[in-house]
Amino acid sequence: MEASAPNPTRDSTSPELPDNLVRDMDRDDLSRLVRDVNDDGRGVSYQQMADRAEAAGSPLSKPYFQKLATNSVTTAPSPERLRGVAAGLEKPLSIVKRAAAIQYLEYEATELAGYDEDVRVIVAHLAGMEKSERRRWQAMIEADERAKRSDDE
Question: Which residue has the higher pLDDT, 124 or 6?
Fold first, then answer.
């Protein structure tokens, strides 16, 4: 007797995955970057990626790129390896570093370019707060904005 295939539409009988497992399964930014270069219209092979990395002076093997693509590399790549990955993918090193940080270090990217240091410090403090405390601060800021508007009228 054959077992039936799982039915993804039967959520009521499917066990819920723990949040940390779902987060870890979704955290594959560097792996996805490698897959995207492999799967895009050019179809760059893992061997071509390895050849590019070697030509750039940061040799990586074909199997390493394959492991990256399947999310089988369990530790964060070294800076030297990240340079090789960037060369192999022909992507800017900053993009590869960010993807690796998200995948391996639970980094959550935020962009604050164009703001002065005061704003960056305030945002950094808010980011470290619990959600309920951030909501309280949001309410205070919005109340201040409403008060300023009513003073201008």
Answer: 124
